[in-house]
## 1
Amino acid sequence: MGTKVTWLGHSGFVIETGAHTILIDPFLTGNPVAPMTADDISKADFILLSHGHGDHVGDTVALALEFGATVLGNPEVSNWIQAQGVEKVATPNTGGTAKLDFGTVKMTLAFHSSSMPDGSYGGSPNGLLIKLNGGLTIYHAGDTALFSDMQLIGEAGIDVAMVPIGDYFTMGPGDSIRAINWLKPGFVLPMHYNTFPVMVQDAASWANRVTSETDAQSVVMDPGNSHEFAK
Ligand code: NI
Ligand code: MN
């Protein structure tokens, strides 16, 4: 049975395994490219957060309260979420792995910054290495610059990678090509681009570079679109 991945625009995704619905960085309210509102989300068992910035925490609190979802983030992020009234949280820190009903999430390095929407300390930013039980290994890079330890993350055997290509706040298209060659994913999805004027990129020319310069297969979606992976 396959895994359905829907892009919410920016760094937001919905992963549907059949058994569980997992949201990553669900930034809908205030997101100019969001294909739907938070009210249109119909299920969330888990919400995974890469770091504390508002364009990643987004609608997490409202969605977690509505669906009783478990929220995973670094300790500072998760404790902040819990202080907003969310009961179930997982609090792994960089290098650590959390075991959840759908599989495991390892908090990888990310080179960026992190503060909560109210300006309080957000801990270290992370990438998320997600291993679905009997299914895909997914790497969501979060917001990050290129860094050479991506080679080590790639040793996990990544089926699907989500990498930022927007530049300005994160690495841009050129660095993402180098990242893809270090991560060696089967499929790669671009994210964190076109949301705001400073991060406009040409995803089609990026995809051409992925084809000619890496062994990965690009999957470029419009916000709201889904891709079904066989595994
Ligand atoms: Ni950020
Ligand atoms: Mn961001």
## 2
Amino acid sequence: MLDGKKTLFSGMQATGNLTLGNYLGALKNWVSIADEYQTFYSVVDMHSITVRQDPAELRKRARTLLTLYIAAGLDPEKNCIYYQSHVSGHAELAWILNCFTYMGELSRMTQFKDKAAKHADNINAGLFTYPVLMAADILLYQADVVPVGIDQKQHLEITRDIAMRFNSVYGDVFTIPEVYIGKSGAKIMSLQDPSKKMSKSDENPNGSIYLMDDPDTIIRKCKRAVTDSEAVVRYREEQPGIKNLIDIYCACLDKIPAEAEREFDGKGYGEFKAAVGEAVVSVLKPLQDRFADLTKNKDYLDSVIKNNAEKAAYFSNKTLRKVQKKVGFPERIR
Ligand code: TYM
């Protein structure tokens, strides 16, 4: 509890081009619940290097992502928006938590298994202990709630397990965080293969809508989305392509699937897909315009980066010092 409010932490990797899935599954919810919490939104660049990155590209993407947080509507005066690598406490706490995490539980992580299969030539220790760094991110700020898409749920569960294990040895050191999954948009699927999640790393660019896609591209990608031959707009498992488009439509316009079904009752897929495209443009275009304005103001962004890193360091140090003391590290001499 900080300033009488509960604490919220979340983060995104500065890897690849952000997709509509990242926006609807995470960023949009971050904005809608931000006022209720003391918030920390990190650009998790340390997680990004578990996969090889081009350094100049990573730096550029990290800045783009931080700017997008603001463009999406997070006021950096009220929300602590910062780079993970600027706050050394993340790495320090991760080390300690590594000593409270078992190889067995890490090897059960589905994201590790997927990434290890994809990057078979570089299964590094960082990829394996990735969830421990994530636990450190969250526990460092004593977060009560962590808004994420469904794919991160397992990482939240291990975070809770690590926190409870630590607390059972040393007393109530960490707040046990709750996962927050939005009502809609928690798992946006590929437009070309609705059995796969929409992903930054998809090789087929038509499968994903990127946050920076222009309106014509967005409309075209929606028109080309894979559907079926049922010819009815129904929200059901048997029609995964249509179900996904309904999810996108509803998440963009804050509607529920039954409303979309009623609206498009008796109408063809062409009309429905065009409406989905328009709905996506209606949320992404304002974000893109704000992004373009913000990038013109280098000094402002630099001051946000500096001030918020200091703020994050201040809060994270409180937890870190407490944890260091608990595990028996010698006191600092002032
Ligand atoms: P990342 O960068 O892969 O994704 C960022 C957020 O976007 C959500 N997301 C989706 N939601 C719906 N549909 C999709 N297709 C989709 N794709 C991605 C993710 O669930 C996530 O919320 N490990 C994390 C980053 C992280 C983190 C943290 C998150 C590091 N430390 C601490 C929360 C708390 C990741 O790689 O997310």
## 3
Amino acid sequence: MNKLCSLTLATALLCAACYSSEKTSTGIGTRVDSVLALMTLDEKIGQLTLFTSDIDVTGPTMRENYKEDIKAGRVGAIFNAYGAAYTRKLQEIAVKETRLHIPLLFGYDVVHGHRTIFPMPLGEAASWDLAAVEKSARVAADEASAEGLHWTFAPMCDIARDPRWGRITEGAGEDVYLGSKIAAARVKGIQGDGVGSLNSVMACVKHFAAYGAAQAGRDYHTTDMSDRVLRETYLPPYKAALDAGAATVMTSFNEIDGVPATGNKYLMTDILRKEWNFTGFVVTDYTSIMEMIPHGIAEDTASAAALALEAGVDMDMQAGFYNDALAALVKAGKLKEGLIDEAVRRILRKKFELGLFDDPYRYSSEQREKETLMSAANLEAARDVARKAIVLLKNDKQLLPLEKDVKKLAVIGPLADARREMIGSWSAAGDWHKASTLLEGVKQAVSAGTQVLYAKGCAIDNDSTQAIAQAVRTAQQADVVILAVGEGAWMTGEAASRASLNIPGVQQRLIEAIYKTGKPVVAVLLNGRPLTIPWLDANIPAIVEAWLPGTMAGQAIADVLFGDYNPSGRLPVTFPRSVGQIPLYYSMKNTGRPMDPNNKYTSKYLDERNDPLYPFGYGLSYTTFSYGPVQVDKQEMTQQDELIVTCTVTNTGARAGKETVQLYLHDVTGSVTRPVRELKGFKQIELAPGASQNVTFKLTAHDLSFYRRDMSFGTEPGKFDVYIGPNARDTQGTAFALR
Ligand code: GLC
């Protein structure tokens, strides 16, 4: 080591020694600058580069060239690497074999659990239970941090109103208010006591922005919308997540208003940093800097890299374009090194906040790993969230709950014993072999005297009908049939758009063959998105939406089917009757010709109804609830007032139950047209049979505010309707005015 280098090293070690002194923001800023001052241009650019580990059946592995990149200081972060021993090994390369010993960040897609897998996020959102949502994220972060991870690429906050888009499964559905509440709850769970606490990881708000508005529901497709729709519908959940303290943001693949998000300065700087004062760092999605070339907005590596950095993007995931092009751009005077310094500062700041300069190995504890992963408490939490996510869609003649001592019970269908499907997509380090199936859950739940029969009936999505006859024979022997149908894990999530929303393959043939046996049938849907099931709804007496429930799938579904848990889930997304209705969501505009069945020239179809099969917020219970009239404490309110809205809800059934009381608002006239209703509040109440509760909501001027004609955010005087009910359709209401 030459004299200069040893002097530099001494300086660095001296700085490293001072690292552990100051943890305040100013102190960290000083320490960041002290490291930055030592860095060469190449070392700075290395901090802006994120490469993937590989995940083989034996677990994460690192390509040899990436190890060389780490040693050469050309990598600042690695994703898809987890495990205390493995992350320690990689960290040792960075800390011991590089000139400045700057530790790596380890990130991973811990989206709905790390080892213990919770329901797909859309299903979890159906719980409307913010405490449960936060708990799920908390368990995930606890397990992830125990395996050496510092950072998760979650929560996904993309509003989605097109179920053809497979990634609708990763978010919280169609609604701005619910989506914002859930985004914040997920960040709180992920970051827990704050970035740097040992059982937390950094959150990453994705995919910024409006990725869920992909045209035709086709993944990665163009999004295009007015600034008003962007700000009113798509941005709020990202903002809620950032207001909850999210440390990082991920750019989305899509273009918006003609500019890909990864090169979109309006999004990444004007809105994110100038309007929202975001101080964390921005990472691209996978190779999305490179993708600006096929997008047609950059002609080569250098122009794509410059466009991203100048837009405000700090870290390049997997494209390697920053590594390849930034140094030459700076040396040629085409890019200011100060831009690179700003990006490096944001990233180093997070490494300091995580305590990695004090102890680079603090998250890589094999002891914590053993104590934390898939603990009994974590599995119980997963079961609890999974059953709270389940939505009872139909229950004619109270077929459900089933008796545990039924003599013969047939469990039929391609999802009945489909272990891998239960943990869905983006299932991180989840081991699907450890997931329970519906068949297993039923067997565990029924009495010793019950005979449980099983037949697969058909595959999830191929066209073989050979096994249907056997399934019919099995059903004919049973007293009641549980029919498990739906989608495969690979059919939801990224790059999984579908042009049809029917139950795939020949499952409908199986369903109708089982129906013809005349046996009582309970259909259990296991799927990652709304499906078009009008035939099922018209013919099958009981239907349960169980989503893709995670590690504890079998137990959670059985808890509901046999009544150990009274289903309380409510749909976070509209279920259309047919794919032709899409986009279909409750908070639509009225149009100048609202549908009138007696007038041809109004907004409707020749061949389909306008209304959904099941509306947003819909879900049944094993009991029933009634709603009294909606009352307001004043007919007129001012900007300064609070409006108190109340409604008495009564459990009119024979068993206790949880009801999600929802409040919707309709601004009758505005300087721009307003949705026919918008969710502005919800409360979950538990009522014993016969009990009533006066449910109260408070509305303020902020709740009545919107982006007015001139794009200013605020209220306008006029009439409002306020509704309360169990979903977006079956409501009661009253009116008031804002002066
Ligand atoms: C993927 C996804 C993104 C994920 C990232 C890293 O392509 O779009 O959600 O976090 O790459 O795996």
